[in-house]
Design goal:
Protein name (chain B): Xanthine dehydrogenase family protein subunit M
Radius of gyration of chain B: 20 Å
Helix content of chain A: 25-40%
CATH class of the largest domain in chain A: Mainly Alpha
Number of helices of chain B: 13
CATH topology of one domain in chain B: Enolase-like, domain 1
Number of strands of chain A: 5
CATH architecture of one domain in chain B: 2-Layer Sandwich
Keywords (chain B): FAD, Flavoprotein
CATH class of one domain in chain B: Alpha Beta
CATH superfamily of one domain in chain B: CO dehydrogenase flavoprotein, C-terminal domain
Pfam family, one (chain A): Fer2
Number of strands of chain B: 12
Oligomer: heterodimer
Shape of chain B: globular
Structural class of chain A: alpha+beta
Distance between the termini of chain A: 68 Å
GO molecular function (chain B): FAD binding; oxidoreductase activity
Strand content of chain B: 15-25%
Organism (chain B): Hymenobacter properus
Largest interface: A-B, 33 and 27 residues
Order of helices and strands of chain A: EEHEEEHHHH
Shape of chain A: elongated
Structural class of chain B: alpha+beta
CATH architecture of the largest domain in chain A: Orthogonal Bundle
Largest sheet of chain B: 5 strands, antiparallel
Strand order of the largest sheet of chain B: 4-5-8-6-7
Number of helices of chain A: 5
Largest sheet of chain A: 5 strands, mixed
Chain lengths: 197, 341
């Protein structure tokens, strides 16, 4: 059982907010928090449990940086109140692999250089795990469409795609006969010719 | 976000009772829109009633051949349900055209009907908005109106309903089941959402405290000839500038029955039964489709920066009807996405 911090890690609030006890199952561990009802699952993870792998990007469900898995399904933890997850099984990036044994997606992201600043990466990996769990994407176009809830402002999309495709191919989920490696994706649009002087 | 209390309801009656007991209470489904509105201080409920434990997430066949979607079924579970994929593929397409996989995993079917406009001025507390603050004025009129209405707007509000799912539900003649302080009732889908008129603060015809419990799809799903065509500023994860739900029943080349509804153009999913009547009995040709499109947009009025949506909507209707017609003639449904009007 990990140590549970019962107060926010940041500056103390002006007046203590009314709290209620909430039991959460995160990465296989049970935690009981005393939190205000307006605490999002994202804030509960980051501010009360020190699980800072899950990132706060836009905080409005638009960027996907806060993606976690709830009962195996990917959701935006920024738009979900922690008090609504009493009976859920929550999995964060910290629960996907260990430092000694990375999950296949984590290893593939390293192998394919699928990030630059890395801020969107935990959300990308949790989202890709959700995508694999859902089993709806069968080719590159479908992977791209079903990863559209995760924004990467560095623009590492080609390598994110190849990392996800490699894992899916290794697990027999992709039907296309195509070798996937970093940078192997064909550009869909011809390169723009420089203007003639 | 303002402070509020939270309770997890254990049944529909208890939820309705809890709502009546609190001034300013709101029901919480998936929260994908409500929590966001609360963070923006646009919505300021004093008490949230969690609906997760109500059940109501089943999708079940009805004795009359229809399908009931529980109000708490998620958009993702609905889109991918085998009965929806097989019998109501128009609904499957419309749901998957909206939001992101994460949001569809959270958002509920009842909540999809209850989502509010994405009008920029509605979200911006620094600008007047009759929907947010009745009587304060409309900042969209004369402003930037790319996502705003071209049909059915009023001098008080030109907001659009943002849903894709609801456009398909309108085309499919869905019935909405609600439960409230005065008991249960059903609402025809076309009567659920309303036009802004002089009360733009009211998105729909629900009475205070009423809760959506289920959506009934009739047996007829138009699974053979349909199209949900969505036009937007990027190819994924964006709201519609214009979307069209088109569904046809064909006898050879003659249209026996037709459904036509638009999204992104009005305060409610815009179904046009007169345009449908122009299609029925006619051959499925471009001329027929153009006549229907002209009828739908006959009363359209642009707001300046959205004038382009009138012609865009006409062409989208013609293309969607063509895609629906040609469906059973091609091997790959994806091929239609690239066909020309």
């Amino acid at each position: 059982m990990s140590q549970v911090t019962q107060v926010p890690l940041g500056r103390a609030p002006v007046a203590p907010a009314p709290t209620q006890p909430v039991s959460l199952n995160i990465n296989g561990q049970a935690h009981t928090l005393h939190i205000a009802p307006w605490t999002t699952l994202l804030d509960a993870l980051r501010e009360y449990l020190d699980l800072t792998g899950t990132k706060k990007g836009c905080d409005h469900g638009q960027c996907g940086a806060c993606t976690v898995l709830v009962d195996g399904k990917r959701i935006n933890s920024c738009l979900s109140l922690a008090v609504t997850h009493e009976d859920s099984r929550i999995q964060t990036i910290e629960g996907l692999g260990t430092e000694d044994k990375l999950s296949p997606l984590q290893q593939a992201f390293i192998d394919h250089d699928a990030f630059q600043c890395g801020y969107c990466t935990p959300g990308q990996i949790c989202s890709a795990q959700g995508l694999i769990n859902e089993g709806k994407a069968k080719n590159e176009a479908e992977v791209r469409e079903l990863m559209s809830g995760n924004v990467c402002r560095c623009g590492a999309y080609p390598n994110i795609l190849s990392a996800v495709m490699e894992v899916m191919q290794n697990e027999g989920l992709i039907m296309e006969d195509k070798a996937w490696s970093a940078g192997a994706t064909e550009p869909e649009i011809a390169p723009v010719e420089p203007p003639k002087k | 976000m303002n402070t509020f209390t939270f309770s997890q309801a254990t049944g529909v009656a208890a939820a309705v009772q809890d709502n009546a007991a609190h001034d300013g209470a709101a029901y919480l489904g998936g929260g994908t829109n409500l929590i966001d509105l609360m963070k923006e201080n646009v919505a300021r409920p004093t008490h949230l009633i969690g609906l997760k434990k109500l059940g109501l997430d089943a999708i079940e066949n009805l004795p009359d051949g229809g399908l009931r979607l529980g109000a708490l079924a998620t958009n993702a579970d609905t889109a991918y349900h085998p009965e929806v994929e097989k019998r109501y593929p128009l609904l499957n397409q419309a749901i998957l055209a909206g939001a992101s996989p994460q949001l569809r995993n959270m958002a509920t079917d009842g909540g999809n009907l209850m989502q509010r406009t994405r009008c920029y001025y509605f979200y911006d507390l620094a600008t007047p908005c009759n929907k947010r603050e009745p009587g304060s004025g409309c900042s969209a009129i004369g402003g930037y109106t790319r996502v705003h209405a071209i049909l059915g707007a009023s001098e008080h509000c030109i907001a659009t309903h943002p849903s894709d799912m609801c456009v398909a539900l309108a085309a499919l003649d869905t019935t909405v089941h609600v439960s409230g302080p005065n008991g249960e009732r059903t609402i025809k889908f076309e009567d659920f959402h309303r036009l802004p008129g002089d009360q733009p603060e009211r998105d729909n015809t629900l009475e205070p405290g009423e809760l959506i419990t289920g959506l009934d799809l009739p047996a007829k799903g138009f699974a053979q000839n349909f199209s949900y065509l969505k036009l937007r500023d990027r190819t994924s994860y964006a709201f519609a500038l214009v979307s069209v739900a088109a569904a046809l029943e064909l006898d050879g080349n003659i249209i026996k029955d037709a459904r036509l509804a638009l999204g992104g153009v009005a305060h409610k999913p815009w179904r046009d039964k007169e345009a449908e009547a122009l299609l029925i009995g006619q051959p499925a040709t471009a001329d027929t489709f153009r006549a229907a499109a002209a009828k739908v947009l006959a009363g359209a009025k642009g707001q300046g920066t959205n004038n382009f949506k009138i012609e865009l909507a006409k062409r989208a209707i013609v293309r969607a009807l063509k895609q629906a017609t040609e469906m059973n003639q091609a091997l790959d449904a994806n091929a239609f996405q690239n066909s020309n009007p």
